[in-house]
Amino acid sequence: MKIGIDLGGTKTEAILLGHDNRLIKKIRTSTPVGQGYRSILNNIKTMVDELENQTSQRCTIGVGTPGSIDKHTNLIKYSNTVCLNDRPLRADLEVLFERPVRIENDANCFALSEAVDGSGKNHKTVFGIIMGTGCGGGIVVNKTIMHGPNGMSGEWGHTVLDPRGHACYCGLHGCIETYLSGPALIKHFRQHGGTPVSRVEEILEQAENNVAAATTMLDHYYTTFARAISQLVKILDPDIIVLGGGLSNIETLYTTAVKRINNFFAHPVSVNLVKNTHGDSSGVRGAAFLWDQK
Ligand SMILES: [Zn+2]
How many angstroms does the Cα of residue 50 sit away from the middle of ligand 1? Predict the structure, then answer.
């Protein structure tokens, strides 16, 4: 049996999957970020123990989390849960659980879940995108996650659209994430005359009511999204692009925005852009599937 853990900055989810990937149990806790690294490890241990108590078997453990593991030092880097950075998370979990543990970037887990039995299941090359608090990507070819020699495969969210753009936490300016993430959309809305809002849904509601600041903001957003996708198509041209994260619920991305991709090509292209199948569960499912990878 398999256990998958989605270690996020605010919540930690864990699932136990049985044969045929049938869901046996799912639990969710808040991530004790304020209490530090050791507390995060202990929280994961408590959750895994609870799931393993459901079965007499020793399970495989896969973990998905933002950031990546440095190939040379085996330490976590680029995590927005900053207390994980420069920590040997995998090694520490392996000591805790007395077995090998696999760890992957959360967007890679999302892409794997959708490629195995979600929206990308009938396609060879799947690009998974998470657009929410941040903007991540993952490439899965023939149900296998691509990493590359630098572990940077799929890091689409931190490719630069405009070097004169806003500062990004990664150290660059004008990354795709600084335009397409939820916080970016809310910030730009305010800067361009919108009322203060705390959720993207409020901007969508205002656009439906033809509030000018909201319709203009969304118009810009669609064009930027289309430009960012066009770059992805020019480099990888995946068979399918699966959107996840909170912003994947903007239905006009699949209609209005996707049509604009052709504004960035001299000759028409056909881009297969779809919504995810497994919703919020994609990341934790992908983490559980990590031990199916060769
Ligand atoms: Zn960046």
Answer: 37
